[in-house]
Design goal:
Blueprint lengths: L3 H5 L7 E2 L4 H11 L3 E6 L2 E7 H9 L20 E2 L5 H10 L4 E5 L5 E6 H11 L7 E8 L5 H10 L2 E9 L7 E10 L2 H10 L3 E7 L5 H16 L1
Parallel strand pairs: 1-2, 4-5
Antiparallel strand pairs: 2-3, 5-6, 7-9, 7-10, 8-9
Helix pairs in contact: 2-3, 4-5
């Protein structure tokens, strides 16, 4: 099975050679609607140059007039990913910098193409089911002694399915921690009510179709008042 990188790599993404001038590179980026592109030297990845890098270099006195070449610019070594890296490790590299692209290189250092930031974020959305209909549930649980399996069991007993979840690390000395679940659920109000019976504090609950906990409770109260009439 192909990894995310192998599936979404763009081998034909524009690249520059070190012999090209900063002025020409800036014009090409503008013409193609790009913010950055890899810089190659003898078939190997040297750097990733951005519009901001080029503008800064050309703003220096006389740089434009002397035909500043990319090989003479002070460019940093770029973040790189391997074709078989996991998407979560790729995201960590993406968060360390602010690129629109990440260069893909083989084990021998050969350049293979790029993957885009938008593609990475889209795939993470698929991985954690952000893009499909469902509900988001956030609750507080004891910082010590809590078992995630017990919370998931309560959720599943209420005819809901956990699609993904995350845990916010509690502050030092905190008595509780925050857990966020992405779930499929037919009756989120019933689920919230039952979780509260177990002593969990519900911080947020909303279906992707709209309607938070307060709105759901109000609808339930309206229904009960209707029955009492």
């Amino acid at each position: 099975m192909m990894s995310f990188v192998q599936k979404y790599i763009e081998p034909d993404y524009p690249v520059f050679q070190v012999s090209e001038t900063a002025r020409d590179a800036l014009v090409q980026l503008h013409e193609q609607g790009l913010r950055e592109a890899p810089v190659m030297k003898e078939g190997k990845l040297l750097a990733v140059v951005s519009i901001d890098d080029l503008r800064l270099a050309l703003d220096e006195e006389g740089a434009d007039e002397t035909g500043l070449r990319l090989e003479h610019m002070a460019l940093e070594n770029p973040e790189q990913v391997c074709p078989d890296e996991h998407i979560l490790d790729i995201y960590e590299k993406l968060s360390n910098t602010s690129p629109d692209i990440l260069a893909v290189t083989s084990g021998s250092g050969g350049y293979e193409g790029v993957i885009t930031k938008s593609g990475i974020l889209e795939q993470i959305g698929f991985l954690y089911h952000f893009s499909e209909q469902g509900a988001t549930l956030e609750l507080e649980a004891p910082a010590l002694g809590v078992k995630v399996s017990e919370i998931i069991s309560v959720i599943e007993k209420n005819d809901a399915m956990v699609l993904s979840f995350g845990i916010t690390e509690p502050d030092p000395g905190a008595q509780s921690m925050v857990m966020t679940f992405r779930i499929q659920c037919q009756d989120i109000y019933r689920l919230v009510t039952n979780l509260e019976k177990y002593g969990y504090l519900i911080r947020y609950a909303r279906s992707s179709e709209g309607g938070g906990v307060d709105e759901l409770r109000e609808k339930a109260l309206e229904f009960m008042r209707y029955i009492d009439m």
